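Hi R.,

Here are the chain sequences for the assembly we discussed:
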Amino acid sequence: MTYTSSLLRLLDERGYIHQLTDAEGLDKLAAGQVVPGYIGFDATAPSLHVGSLVQIMLLRRLQQAGHKPVVLMGGGTTRIGDPTGRDESRKMLSDEAIEANIASIRTIFARLLHFGDGPTDAIMVNNHDWLGQLGYIELLQKVGTHFTVNRMLSFDSVRLRLEREQPMTFLEFNYMILQGYDFRHLARSAGVRLQMGGSDQWGNIVNGIELTRRMDGQEVYGLTTPLLTTADGGKMGKTAAGAVWLNDDALPAYDFWQYWRNTDDRDVGKFLRLFTDVPLDEIARLEALGGSEINAAKVVLANEVTRLCRGEAAAAAAEATASATFAGGGLGQDLPALALPAAGLSLVDALVGIGFAASRGEAKRLIAGGGAKVDGEAVTDETAHIVGGSEVRLSAGKKKHGILRPA
RNA sequence: GGACAGGUGGCCGAGUGGUUAAAGGCAGCAGACUGUAAAUCUGCCCGCGCAAGCGUACGCUAGUUCGAAUCUAGCCCUGUCCA
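And here is the predicted structure of the full complex:
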């Protein structure tokens, strides 16, 4: 359908919309007033990773279209764990750890959203503030009466778990009730009218909408984004080294830049639309590039995403390093580095020390397989020694490069 | 509380006394081909050691045995059914 509100038009043309609970209703609302909308985030780690970036960008779009982003930190629900898609119950975190995580995660939102007291300024809330107050009996009375177990059992998050004969605790089973309550609470206390989230959150969002309608007679809306996978079928944001973290201190900017630079050809256009502010006509031009020319589009993607998440300077430095290292065959200053003692260093120790191999055995296998290079030359002798005294370029495979600097 | 089934390497999943550091698959790493892409083919894939080898590992603990992932007992956890 064609939307009249700038919000839905923007979201639609950049590929954020998977499902809407009431497209017409929301379109009308968004065309006529500032719509506060929220997305919930977990506080299980000190940083969010690339898998959450669609949601963060969605809040950014909301603000760009003149509405109000509400970042909901799951300080309360993190103490429970969302059963969705997980085979195992989540570990419980201490209150202090959760608070510290929220503070750390806040820094990434500060880069991508404008916070403040104005009508379209972003705000951050923590559901521990209201869920923590709730008494069990009170919750059962107020909220429990609006849920039937029959229906709860039919939700994918529960059903799949049962079908796979994976355990699900009562604690987790309650997650959806608390999630639904969040929406109703935010609708009442902050005038929130929209909840967004990944497609796996559909059931939770619908629950919240119904609960809000039943308890308060208030009409609220839901929107989900498509499940993002890479073109080769993998999950977004996972690499060998682990998750691609958004926070500066969780992953070096150069590695973050490289993650985007190595995007599959087929994903370039999609990622540019979702993760950058590059205008659509420019994206259309970039994704039409054929053959190796598409690499130029990948550089734009890497630069833009890094700029948004890590800042202008970090993006420029990462690009300069990549350019010097790959195109120039030289050394960029942002590469991982290791001190090289005057007496030199064994190749094995150098590979382990700089982080290209997790153990000495792995380093030896890398060497034996022909993947270790010193100053661009493959070295296949496990006992090779690197002499000290001058700067050395150390590589593992074609993509991982580092510098050994005389100490 | 009872009966039955099950708990194996990052994941899935074989393995029922020695030749098992444990088949196979996925994921991952490297090589070839390329464009820092994909697909494909090849090699690698617990740790330490130059090596012979040593250490650690099949839910936990104690046993049987020359020898246990494999047998026994107790315990913990999960599922299904019964109460």
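The radius of gyration of chain A is 24 Å. The CA atoms of residues 254 and 383 of chain A lie 30 Å apart.

Let me know if anything looks off.

Best,
T.
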